[in-house]
Design a protein that fits this description.
The protein is built from five helices and three strands; from the N terminus they run ααβββααα. It has one domain. It is 52% helix and 13% strand. It is α+β, with helices and mostly antiparallel strands and 124 residues long. A hairpin with a 5-residue loop joins strand 2 and strand 3.
């Protein structure tokens, strides 16, 4: 999916935000809209046996239980600390405790954490 970083920060809670999270955070491949309306995205995710399976992109930005999968993924990627920092910055701007972060805010924090890691790798 081709979206630049500036546009990803401006996305509303939507299928496009979910698609970005699936691709950049969760590791999905070939994430594409099902039709021109871009309401539903599909992609290939790895199953337990390691094979890529076609599946609908989950609603990470609107479903709280799915948003918590993002935190588990951040731990797997070794980005827990950066994710927490980004989430804290996002939530602090709304004067809320981190525990009250919305699924959308968790998605945005994860995207920023992954983006900052890529930037650090590129600078090496």
């Amino acid at each position: 999916m081709k979206l630049n970083a500036e546009k990803s920060e401006k996305l509303s809670v939507s299928s496009e935000l979910d698609a970005l999270v699936a691709e950049r955070v969760m590791g999905w491949k070939d994430v594409r809209p099902q039709n021109k309306a871009k309401i539903v995205y599909w992609g290939k995710k790895q199953d337990k046996a390691g094979r890529l399976r076609l599946a609908r992109v989950p609603d990470y930005s609107t479903e709280p239980l799915l948003a918590y999968q993002i935190e588990d993924r951040m731990k797997e990627l070794g980005l827990s600390e950066q994710y927490s920092k980004e989430l804290s910055n996002i939530v602090r701007s709304k004067s809320l405790p981190v525990d009250w972060a919305s699924p959308e805010q968790r998605c945005r924090a994860a995207l920023k954490a992954v983006k900052s890691r890529r930037r650090k790798i590129a600078l090496r």
